[in-house]
Write a structure and sequence with these properties.
elongated
Length: 66
Amino acid sequence: MNRWLIGAGLALLVAGLTWPWLSRIPLGRLPGDFHFHRGGFDLYLPLASSVLVSAVLTLLLWWLRR
């Protein structure tokens, strides 16, 4: 558990330091992300972004467990 917490903390530190470059990634604006606006109601469904993040994390965790 301790190693996991240290790894998560380091990942957050790296993400924070690289935020200016990470914000340029078009997550949330991919072709499969849907945004519906009707009157005063907004519905946002980031389907393509969710699938992409899930695939990347799955490959990363698979690679780390090998």
